[in-house]
């Protein structure tokens, strides 16, 4: 089997550089292009990090003992504090439990360290991996050489792995089209980016859908009405407050929000500044979380089949682990608009 030295010679870098890439050592920077080449070499040469892992892989090839364990890689706080992820988690848990599998929570840090990666995949006996939190693409491909992987949510929509998702871009286009049909012409957006700091809003699919729908409707996008709340309620609230106080005479008539959580926070800012929803500003969210219909006024939103996403992700990983599915299928689930009092028809 390949060694670190073989990887280094194949790529044309030092052994220490290869080691830093594989161990995700952040103390010294490695050129992104070099990282890509190292992970490609890892895959090409079939490198397994140490002798203990080599022995385990050989043993698995000879005779594998079932553990009935599936790993779940997500931000630990998401399933606890965000209703969107909580319902996905419930769908996963229920489906795995009914098939007598155990769900093991894993953090991305445990995968981005060589020793912990080996412990997770080999010592804990993980048979498959479900991904929501973002991990490095090359690491995903490396893990795929050992166990099946299924991705959920926007980090994995366009990756070469099995994916359970919905079409975020088309969902937001439908929202904008609905608002335009109601008479809205001055429409803003609240969302979050896709990179580690959630800064890159331009690359996020819901914002792309917003841009496309506005262009198709012949409407201009005002930069001051585009708020990157980085998926956080508190930032959405603060930015909406600043927008209202900064230019009270030039506000959008509607705000498209990439999540119900950010919409609810922004709506509170509107209420606290003596504006009326939807008469002054209409709001439309995404996810259809339970609290949205109990807010004042109830929030219009896009219904996403969250529990079904979790259920299908669990079923897919089970089928891959048990060998009844060999292809990396991409399942795109349907969605629908749920119209409530936070949006209205504008009479012109």
TrEMBL record:
Signal peptide segment: none
The cross-references to InterPro entries, in alphabetical order and at most eight, read: HTH_LacI (IPR000843), LacI/GalR-like_sensor (IPR046335), Lambda_DNA-bd_dom_sf (IPR010982), Peripla_BP_I (IPR028082)
Q: Which UniProt keywords apply?
A: DNA-binding, Transcription, Transcription regulation
Which Pfam families does its entry note? LacI (PF00356), Peripla_BP_3 (PF13377)
Q: Which SUPFAM superfamilies match?
A: lambda repressor-like DNA-binding domains (SSF47413), Periplasmic binding protein-like I (SSF53822)
Q: Where is the HTH lacI-type domain?
A: 2-58
SMART domains with a match to the protein in the record: HTH_LACI
PROSITE patterns linked to this entry: HTH_LACI_1, HTH_LACI_2
Identification of the protein by name: HTH-type transcriptional repressor PurR
The protein's organism comes out as Neobacillus kokaensis
- Give the source lineage, highest ranks first: Bacteria, Bacillati, Bacillota, Bacilli, Bacillales
